[in-house]
Write a structure and sequence with these properties.
heterotrimer, A mainly alpha, B mainly alpha, C alpha/beta, B: mainly alpha, MetI-like fold, 9 helices, elongated, C: alpha/beta, Rossmann fold, six-stranded mixed β-sheet, 18 helices, disordered C terminus
């Protein structure tokens, strides 16, 4: 198990290094002179020079890269050119909207998808199965930001149960959760639909396996065989999907924040793009990629906990 | 032929037809603003009403279909065109350093969701439809590479491949003659699913302004413009949304229907 | 005392009858065997008795276990009976166990389902049962850590944990090697004696049936064609199908004499190492030696057999001879030229026929394209008219009509596919064919026909082959010389009859002792 974890850790580190090189190359090498790019065509030469100095652009590429990565490891993401504030502070303020939103949505989606998928699989071909599969077919096809707009139209504008947008901060956790509820539902619905479908088909696959027949021959009922034997085996592909979904949820959160005017990473990154604040863009993107890689690492470890065959393999 | 296949093919044909028709004819010219006739409700001269600039929504939806379908189609083409050969190559050299490199590369790309790639490209090159195509296309490469490799690996263990090797055929020839025809169905079905995901991704990117830019019409853009009007003129926000929903639904049903029709045992990945 | 009575059992699936009018009585403390070829309804009878018929199956008649009619028993009561009054062992031990649960927990589950006992007690009893079935590993192990034979012991322990009156074993040893098979059959016999349960043994292997069963039922097309006490049935064989079945199992073919002593294939001191999983992150990768200094020769027109159990290196040797895998030492030559991937002229001298009649052909190509694939080895492959002639001749040689050329592979039965595989091998007129378990997946009657075909081909022109099989009786009937392989080494070789009659190496002796024997049959000669 420890060897398995160490092996995954090594490949995680390698992924992070390559990812950082890619991001660095796109943001700081491809534009030629990032300082001139950030300031636009009308910038005065002395302003550009000042920015170049501040970004350390006169250093060779390798040491600039090393400085960037070294800084990030110590929690120093540089200073935003437009906000004149450390990027770490900007991110820290906003991550407390985006991350809870993604987790909230993941929880909702799992809570809905697991029972729906299990129910549909256990009633294969029945009316419940058909209804759930039909609903997931719609759920998969709905663009989440449009669904968000419809939620606003119904629950905020017409029914006035929720506010149409904005975020009150975590001082009042209840109010904060309430503000995140519609966005989380909008994010969760398509993911829940996918997850329920995967759960169902994975369970049905497992129910066709020989060991289910063995379990039935032991005297287990269909239901017992499903819960005790099929479910844990079916979780393996389901976990993969959950891991992949987290990156979609994080990305989706950035979009949904636009619908609900939430002060999260999405807002930060779009302002940074329009202000050409590359320092912010590169750090936020690196953070997103880091999160995705970390989540997949955790999923790999969970795999090994579920499946003894993986534990044995280094 | 299942019901899924018929409904799916019908919806797909309808929206593809709308897109194709837009090259020849649209009810109104969407580049002409007609402010006095803004926010008309559906019916009358404008079948689906008009938007806040008085543009005909049906014409916008037709032009938007063109953008969405073109972007998603080219992006899936990129993903298939690069992903399938990479997957075949990795499977042919399974267990080698090359296989490892291709698969690690795939894992790495998976850490960059389309949106993140789009953010990176936009930050440096500015937003455009090409930008959306590249962002969605890059993300599609590992999807197809993995699927191809996964489907090709068990085939390489089959006796008929050994028989081909005994007949002196090399890895490249076997990949084309024996592996490809046996995974083609899976690729067609997955291609349909990726196409639908591409439509959704394109809509999302143009909604947040990272995709096609005005005056090019796109469904995501129409939704972004309609957002503030949702309480006054809900139809402006509802119609493009339904266009996306129905197109994606149609493609998904088509994919499922094709799978059941071609080979019910195919494993398709949805994320 | 009658334990199980099946009366006029009929089963239909989707309107198609799969069982018709089955009548069977079996007593406690006895082994009753149901035998027959694939599709005869053996397994369906077993599943019906367990009340585990597939969905959509409609059963009529009676299945009385100790007076309780299984077909009339509601599902909850059936669940209480399964694992308790009746247990079942399946064919494929590799997939019959839940991969994510320990073996101890899976055996204990049988007890926990049926009895109100503490977990600790159930686990203790499970451990005792695992010991009783002769498993020498800890109950905390997972299935993937066990061999096929060990897993089958776990499945048996699960089935008998509640000491059921009836144990059904559906092809319990078919997936196992002969020596393992012998031990598992011993175990089952011992359990029948000790627990006094009735064993319903489903198997296609007539030698096993004749060896262990007290009574035999022979099935064909969903009916029992003959049933009786083993000695009576073997003596009488009233039904022609029974006779044909036994005759086909004992099929001996006539091989023409070997023409010359000219060497064709020479394998000298070949070593093949596979890298295995790393034990440490650094340092060299450990290797597994699949072929250890293997040497053999095959003369022109000579028929050589190779026997050995799974994992002994038979398949690796096939691939090495065909030049599909590199070797780490030694040489392989054909007509004194070394075998290599690129040398087409040399490679056309060797072709191969594989085991699996379903996996040997690309399902997307037509037969003409499939069987002419080796033409790739020729500098000037026949085209147009010549190609059509070559195809027709190859099909005729293996007893198939010329119009087979335009069909897809799914239109053919297993036996026909093996004929096509032979046609594909013959089309470039090779000097040597490797038959890699080529008849192992076939039913006995089809197998007999394919063996006849091979002998026929040998009479038409001198054909050398290496016949690889785990089935000793087949090798004995179709080869001149035999090699015995164990753990990557050839431990014995010699003239086939001599080796079988008087084995020298202890491993050969154990193989021959473990293989169940068909009884000498008076009818064998005139039945076909």
């Amino acid at each position: 198990m420890i060897r398995f974890a160490l092996g995954r850790l090594a490949s995680l580190t390698a992924s992070l290094i390559v990812a950082s090189i890619v991001i660095f190359a796109v943001v700081e090498v491809i534009p030629g002179d990032p300082a001139a790019f950030m300031l636009g065509v009308n910038a005065r030469p002395d302003t550009i020079a000042a920015l170049r100095a501040e970004m350390g652009l006169d250093e060779p590429l390798v040491s600039r890269y090393a400085a960037w990565v070294g800084g990030m490891v110590q929690g120093n993401f540089g200073v935003s050119w437009t906000y004149k504030t450390p990027v770490a502070t900007l991110i820290a303020d906003r991550i407390w909207v985006s991350l809870p939103l993604a987790i909230y949505a993941l929880t909702l989606s799992t809570l809905v998808a697991f029972p729906a998928g299990i129910y549909a699989a256990s009633r294969r071909g029945g009316a419940g199965d058909t209804a759930i599969m039909g609903a997931t077919q719609l759920g998969v096809a709905i663009p989440n930001f449009w669904f968000a707009m419809i939620l606003v139209l119904i629950f905020a504008i017409n029914l006035r149960w929720f506010s149409a947008g904005g975020f009150p901060g975590w001082a009042d956790p209840w109010a904060a959760l309430k503000a995140l509820t519609l966005p989380a539902i909008a994010l969760a619905l398509p993911q829940a639909a996918i997850l329920a479908r995967v759960m169902r088909s994975s369970l049905l696959d497992m129910l066709g396996e020989d060991f289910i027949r063995t379990a039935r021959a032991k005297g287990l009922t269909r239901r017992q065989a499903l819960w005790r034997h099929a479910l844990r085996n079916a979780l393996i592909p389901v976990l993969t999907i959950i891991g992949l979904q987290f990156s979609f949820l994080l990305a989706g959160a950035i979009i949904i924040e636009q619908v609900f005017f939430l002060p999260g990473l999405g807002r930060l990154i779009f302002q940074a793009i329009s202000a050409r604040d590359l320092i912010v863009v590169e750090s936020v993107v690196m953070l997103l990629v880091f999160t995705v890689i970390m989540v997949n690492f955790i999923v790999d470890l969970t795999y090994a906990a579920v499946d003894p065959r993986l534990r044995a393999r280094a | 032929m299942s019901r899924n296949l018929i409904i799916g093919a019908g919806l797909t044909a309808f929206f593809t037809g709308l897109a194709a028709l837009s090259f020849l004819w649209t009810p109104y010219n969407i580049e002409v603003l007609d402010i006095p006739n803004r926010l008309l409700t559906p019916g009358g001269a404008h079948v689906l009403g008009t938007d806040h600039f008085g543009r005909d929504i049906l014409s916008m939806v037709m032009m938007g279909a063109r953008t969405s379908i073109a972007v998603a189609l080219v992006a899936v083409g990129i993903g298939m065109g690069l992903g399938v050969p990479l997957g075949l190559w990795a499977a042919a050299r399974r267990g080698s350093l090359l296989d490892d490199l291709i698969m690690r590369g795939n894992d790495l790309v998976f850490a960059f969701p389309s949106l993140v790639i789009a953010i990176l490209i936009t930050a440096v090159f500015g937003p455009s439809a090409i930008n959306a195509i590249i962002a969605i296309g890059i993300f599609n490469i590992p999807v197809f590479a993995r699927l191809t490799r996964g489907a090709a690996l068990p085939l390489w263990e089959r006796d008929f491949i050994l028989a081909a090797r005994v007949s002196g055929k090399g890895a490249a020839r076997i990949s084309v003659e024996h592996i490809l025809p046996n995974i083609a169905n899976l690729m067609i079905v997955q291609g349909t699913i990726q196409f639908s995901l591409g439509i959704l991704a394109e809509a999302a990117l143009s909604y947040i302004g990272l995709g096609a830019q005005p005056p090019t019409a796109s469904w995501g853009r129409m939704l972004a413009d309609a957002q503030t009007l949702v309480s006054i003129a809900p139809h402006v926000a509802l119609i493009p949304g339904f266009a996306i929903l129905l197109t994606v639904l149609g493609l998904n049903l088509l994919g499922d229907g094709l799978r059941d029709w071609l080979d019910p045992r195919l494993r398709v990945v949805r994320t | 005392m009658t334990l199980l009575t099946i009366k006029d059992l009929s089963v239909q699936i989707g309107g198609t009858p799969v069982l018709q009018g089955i009548d069977l009585d079996m007593a406690a403390g006895q082994i009753t065997a149901i035998t027959g070829e694939s599709g005869s309804g053996k397994s369906m009878t077993a599943l019906a008795t367990m009340g585990l018929l597939p969905q959509g199956a409609v059963a009529q008649g009676q299945i009385l276990l100790d007076g309780t009619d299984i077909l009339q028993t509601p599902e909850p009561a059936l669940c209480r009976m399964r694992g308790n009054a009746m247990g079942m062992v399946f064919q494929e031990p590799m997939t019959a166990l839940n991969p994510v649960q320990t073996i101890g927990a899976q055996v204990a589950e049988t007890i926990l389902i049926h009895e109100q006992v503490t977990k600790a007690e159930a686990h203790a009893r499970a451990a005792a049962m695992l010991e009783r079935v002769g498993l020498k590993v800890a109950p905390t192990r997972y299935p993937h850590e066990l061999s096929g034979g060990q897993r089958q012991r776990v499945v048996i322990a699960m089935a008998i944990a509640m000491r059921p009156k009836l144990l059904i074993a559906d092809e319990p040893t078919t997936a196992l090697d002969v020596t393992t098979q012998a031990r598992i059959l011993d175990l089952l016999q011992g359990l029948v004696d000790e627990f006094g349960m009735g064993l319903l043994l489903i198997t296609h292997d007539l030698a096993v049936v004749a060896d262990v069963a007290d009574r035999i039922a022979v099935m064909q097309h969903g009916r029992i064609v003959e049933e009786g006490a083993t000695p009576d049935l073997l003596r009488a064989m009233r039904h022609p199908y029974t006779r044909a079945l036994f005759a086909a199992s004992a099929r001996a073919v006539d091989l023409p004499p070997v023409p010359t002593d000219a060497p064709l294939l020479a394998v000298r001191n070949v070593v093949r190492d596979y890298p295995t999983k790393r034990l440490s992150l650094f340092g060299p990768r450990p290797t597994f030696r699949a072929l250890n200094n293997v040497s053999l020769t095959i003369n022109r027109g000579e028929r050589v057999g190779l026997v050995g159990e799974s994992g002994c290196g038979k398949s690796t040797l096939t691939r090495a001879i065909l030049g599909l895998e590199p070797v780490q030492g030694g040489t392989i030559t054909v007509d004194d030229a070394p075998v290599s991937q690129g040398d087409h002229a040399l490679r056309r001298k060797m072709q191969v026929v594989f085991q699996d009649p379903y996996g040997s052909f690309n399902p997307r190509h037509r037969v003409d394209r499939l069987i002419t694939e080796p033409f790739h080895l020729l500098d000037n492959p026949p085209k147009g008219e010549d190609r059509a002639k070559a195809i027709a001749k190859a099909l005729k040689d293996v007893g198939l009509p010329p119009d087979a050329a335009g069909k897809y592979i799914h239109e053919f039965s297993g036996g026909q596919r093996q004929r096509l595989a032979i046609a594909r091998a013959l089309i470039v007129e090779p000097d040597l064919i490797i038959f890699d378990e080529a008849v192992s997946a076939l039913d006995v009657s089809v197998r007999a026909q394919v063996l006849d075909l091979i002998a026929d081909l040998c009479r038409k022109r001198p054909l050398a082959y290496l016949f690889i099989s785990h089935d000793l009786s087949v090798v004995r009937s179709i080869t001149d010389r035999v090699l015995v392989m164990q753990a990557g080494k050839i431990v014995e070789s010699g003239v086939t009859e001599t080796v079988f009659a008087n084995p020298q190496h202890p491993y050969t002796q154990s193989l021959i002792a473990a293989a169940p024997q068909l009884p000498e049959l008076a009818y064998a000669a005139d039945a076909l």
